[in-house]
Model the fold of this input.
Amino acid sequence: MKNRKVSKAVIRRLPRYYRELGLLKQKKIERISSGDLAERLGLNPSQVRQDLNCFGGFGQQGYGYQVSSLHKELASILGLTRTYRAIIAGAGNIGQALCKYEGFLELGFETLALFDIDKSLVGKLVCEKPVMHIDKMSDFILSNNVDIGIIAARRRAAQPIADIMVKSGIRAIWNFVPADITVPVPLENVHLSDSLLVLTYQLASANEQEQDKA
Amino acid sequence: MKNRKVSKAVIRRLPRYYRELGLLKQKKIERISSGDLAERLGLNPSQVRQDLNCFGGFGQQGYGYQVSSLHKELASILGLTRTYRAIIAGAGNIGQALCKYEGFLELGFETLALFDIDKSLVGKLVCEKPVMHIDKMSDFILSNNVDIGIIAARRRAAQPIADIMVKSGIRAIWNFVPADITVPVPLENVHLSDSLLVLTYQLASANEQEQDKA
Done:
């Protein structure tokens, strides 16, 4: 697995393979062909084979993939063989929902604390985690060996918060703010509004096509 | 703008252009070159020109783009010249956070109601909107001309809920459940766990590279 160059598109599909294999495992299905796996994911079989070949030849011709071992391999590739420590900057609606998100614990994530500037929130507990003043974030990261910083603050605060996180040694950032931030560590953006606009774009195009037909 | 074939990658960048132009407008900047716009978005200038050319020649050589008119054009392309009516299936943490999400109102979205099967939630108000039993969702969609169905329910319920939504005339679905659902209307997925796994993948790869160097 050394020095592999894997395209972003392939990496984005890995969690879907992992998720689907987890479901198959739950259903006690022991093996699956690339064709069946492809169909379940709306992909084509050769893409599935190519994707998984990026990480080594997991399948066997005429046999397909062994579900539980491929699931385990993907867990390792996705870095799920350990737990991660996270903090959330911004204890508003999104920050609180993330803190309570069940999917996190399942994946081995632990939120240690939330940070905010809002006096009505600081000092309180959200999902049993303390909300601390943002001024304490840097020290907290330094002394608690935090892996992932989640940003769910206001737009203007996103870049300054990211800068403090990076300076304090955070190893990756998960950004929920609709702003393009720049950091020298792995960054994943969840741009809710952008996603919604892709949907309204499709609605608007569909409308136009209907009008053209009429 | 008729019968245009625009790639998904271009469509995914449109909200970013729209967002950036909105910020420029706020700053009273009247025009911008493709080079400057590209730099702000981490793209290259020729890509910016190509992307925007898909929808018509908005720029002028030697002048660049007129910020406010391009912003307005993009609003129209993104379908933001009207308001949208949405409902949320699943009134748990994510559903509630979405209902309270300020970005929605800004974009012209109105959440009419939430739906759930949880007796402790049904009958309550969340962000001043009623939480109704999921059995009432179909009638509600039919009689309220709902555009967008947001799914924030449990995994197993996602496809059945999507089917009811489509049958009742919903025009687009925004899915927050980590499941691959199939619908004959525009669909946007926000897979939080998948996004997080892309981040852990990057962390795991970074670790490996460090180990290789050592």
The longest strand of chain A covers residues 109-116. The radius of gyration of chain A is 21 Å. The CA atoms of residues 115 and 134 of chain A lie 5 Å apart. The longest helix of chain A spans residues 192-213.
